[in-house]
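Need residues for this backbone.
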């Protein structure tokens, strides 16, 4: 919403989600943090929203997240599936479209479960590239050492 201030030459804006959707201060703090930092666990949200809103505990954060997920004017947050190796689920906002947000989250590379070997064909090219980069860096370091020694000798 555009706000006009008397005597101001610059346009000013304010958000009206609180009034338009009837979102309380705690829920607004959670939405702000999700928009700012991306998907997070309930514990991370609790610790990062302390300046915006005070939560008495983790159940209060989870209750507010549930309210946002079941809001009558459309869900504003969603719980993401648990990632391999993590013990807590994360939450994300749905303001950029539910499908794009969740599909982007699901396409993140997953860690291979313990006991399973990673795909060696896809890693071979990557390994060769890294080995070549290390060799190039070693060559460059040797050249810099030689130049430094020449410079050092010129001052002695």
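Answer:
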């Amino acid at each position: 919403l555009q706000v006009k201030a008397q005597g101001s030459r610059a346009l000013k804006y304010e958000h009206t989600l609180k009034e338009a959707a009837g979102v309380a201060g705690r829920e607004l703090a959670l939405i702000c943090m999700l928009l700012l930092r991306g998907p997070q666990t309930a514990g991370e949200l609790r610790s990062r929203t302390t300046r915006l809103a005070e939560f008495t505990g983790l159940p209060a954060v989870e209750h507010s997240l549930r309210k946002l997920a079941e809001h009558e004017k459309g869900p504003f947050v969603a719980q993401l599936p648990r990632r391999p190796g993590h013990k807590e689920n994360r939450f994300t906002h749905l303001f950029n479209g539910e499908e794009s947000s969740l599909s982007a989250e699901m396409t993140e590379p997953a860690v291979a479960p313990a006991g399973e070997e990673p795909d060696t064909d896809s890693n071979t090219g990557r390994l060769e590239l890294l080995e070549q980069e290390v060799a190039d860096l070693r060559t460059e370091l040797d050249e810099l050492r030689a130049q430094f020694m020449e410079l050092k000798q010129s001052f002695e």
